[in-house]
Amino acid sequence: MPFLTGELELALATPGCSICRIVRQHEERWIFHTLWEYTGDPGVRAKFDASYGLCHPHAYLMFQVVEGHQLGGSGVARMYETVVPKYREKLAELLRPKNMLKRWLRAKPQALTELKVKGCMLCRVRRDTARGAVFFLLQALQEDPETWHELVRKSDGFCNPHLLLILKDEQACGNPAFWQFLVDDHLQRLEELERQLYGFQRKQSYDVDEEISAEEARSWQEAIWRFTGMDFNCDHPVFANGLSQRSPRFRPSTWGRSGSPWHAGTPRRMPWSYRSRQRSSAPARLSTAA
C-alpha cells in the first residue's frame, strides 16, 4: 500500500479529517482500477461473488465513480454477472423439499442469513487504508516530530473515530509522547469547537448585536464530521474546499409588518433563544418571590 509522505502532507493541508480523505481517495482508486483492469481477475471475482457484490454505501460509490469517469456500465455488469446466478441459486434453496419439516424450519433462518451481503471487499480496503495511513502518520511523527507536529497543528486534526484508531495503534501505545501530543491537540480542538458552537447559538438571539464569524457559522458542520467522520457524498462545500456559506441572520427588521416572526412570507423562527428567554425571565421570578 504505497502511502507517500507527500500524500499525507496534502491530506493534512485539506479541510476536515485527513484520514477520512485518504480513505475516500483510495476507495475511489480501488473502484476505478478494479473496473478498468481487474474485472476478469479470478481472485477478485471470487471475493466479489462471495460477498454478493458491495455493501450499500460502496455500491453507490461505484455508481458515482462510473458516472464521474464515464467508464460505462460494462465493468460493473461483468462483475455482477456471476453474482446474480449465485444469489439466485442460494435463494432457490429455500424452496427445495426437505426430508423433515422441522429440520427445514430450523435451517431456514440460517439460509436467510447467508443471503445477506457481508464481507464487502471495499470495506476491507477501507479498514486497511485507514490502518496504513495511521501507521505511516505515526512513523512520520517519530522520524521528524518537529515538522509533523507542526503539520498536524495547522491541520483540522482528526475525527473522533480515527483518533481512537490512532491511539490504539501499537506505535502510539508504546510511545507516551504520541499520546500526550495527540490527546492534548484534540482536547484543544474540542474546546475551541465548544466555544464556537456556543457563540453561534448566542449570536442567533435577537438581542445580541454581534456578527457571526465564519468559524462559528461552520461549527455545526465540524461537530457532525468530528464525531462521525466525513461523508463525501454530502453535497456541501465544507467537504469540497472547507468554505461554507454564512448562515442567514434573522433580525427583527426582517419580520413581517405586524412585528411577528410568524407573519406570512418571513422565516419561521422564534425571535429569541431559549437561553435569552431564561435570562429575561429570571428577574421576574425573583421579584415575584420577593
Helix and strand run: HHHHHHHHHHHHHHH
Global structural class: mainly alpha
Work out the helicity level: 55-70%
Mean pLDDT: 76
Distance separating the two termini: 73 Å
Main sheet overview: none
Tally of separate helices: 15
Number of individual domains: 3
Shape: globular
Uncertain stretches of 5 or more adjacent residues: 241-290
Please report which band the strand proportion falls in: under 5%, 5-15%, 15-25%, 25-35%, 35-45% or over 45%.
under 5%
User: How many strands appear in the DSSP assignment?
Assistant: 0
Textual characterization of the structure:
The longest helix is centred in the middle third of the chain and has 27 residues, at 176-202. The protein has helices at 5-13, 18-37, 42-50, 56-69, 74-80, 83-92, 101-114, 121-143, 145-154, 160-168, 170-173, 176-202, 214-217, 219-228, 274-289. The protein folds into 3 domains: 18-123, no CATH class; 124-239, no CATH class; 252-289, no CATH class. α1 crosses α2 and α2 (18-37) packs across α8 (121-143). It is 64% helix and 0% strand. The protein contains 15 helices and no strands. By secondary structure, the chain is an all-alpha fold. The radius of gyration is 27 Å and the shape is globular.
List the helices and strands and how they pair.
Blueprint: H1 5-13, H2 18-37, H3 42-50, H4 56-69, H5 74-80, H6 83-92, H7 101-114, H8 121-143, H9 145-154, H10 160-168, H11 170-173, H12 176-202, H13 214-217, H14 219-228, H15 274-289
